[in-house]
Amino acid sequence: MGVRLMVVDDHRLHAEALASALKLRGHRVLAAAAPAAGAAELVISRAPEVCLLGTAAPAEPGIFDPVARVKRERPQVAVLVLGPVPSPRGIAAAFAAGASGYVRHDERIEGVERAIMKARAGEAAVAPALLQGAFGELLNPAAQPDDEGQRLLQMLTPREVEVLVRVADGEDTRLIAAGMGIAPSTARTHVQRVLMKLGVGSRLEAAALAARTGLLDRAGASIP
């Protein structure tokens, strides 16, 4: 039997792609996207069985406040945090706020579905490999952890950063060209360069990678 669930994420393209994949597997998806500021209100009003709540910065103070509010007002809702590879502090903060589990942005759909079923059953849903990595970091902390999002952002020109943000917002080549005041052929070239630099084969993969690494949040801050 399908699960009544929600996918709530700042980045519409990523949220809708995941929601569509879950619908194809027989689940009832109530909503696909919402601004982070309104995530808790949306979940509380719809009261799904399980909510996948996206975040790009699991170690940022207060990032899991929406989780805590949902659990306070709708304790029956199981909340799964969807985000990049977290630090041990990030995992601890998610569970401390009341999350039922943590799922990586780049997890395969089968893994996401397993986490959903565990969460609905009242079990903790976090991949053993993720826990192992987190405990490994606790025991052997890196002096200067690699910031993949920042590294990828430095590979892109300011114009390519804007293109990536528009791709993640679901704009096609025509909309990108109109929004940036350039020819469609030029927009297409920019998109191809972004895909090449990020090492991905599609716009959807580019959006997922950008969301997973926190690149989109850094990109948004850099665009005037």
Automatic annotation (TrEMBL):
Response regulatory domain span: 4-120
Keyword match DNA-binding: yes
Gene3D superfamilies: 3.40.50.2300
UniProt xrefs under SUPFAM superfamilies: C-terminal effector domain of the bipartite response regulators, CheY-like
Keywords of the record: DNA-binding, Transcription, Transcription regulation
One GO process term, biological-process aspect: regulation of DNA-templated transcription
Tagged with keyword Ligase: no
CDD domains: LuxR_C_like (cd06170)
Alphabetized Pfam families for the sequence: GerE
The HTH luxR-type domain, residue ranges: 149-214
A molecular function (GO) term: DNA binding
Xref: PANTHER family: DNA-BINDING TRANSCRIPTIONAL ACTIVATOR DEVR_DOSR (PTHR44688)
Entry protein name: Response regulator transcription factor
Species this chain originates from: Streptomyces coelicoflavus
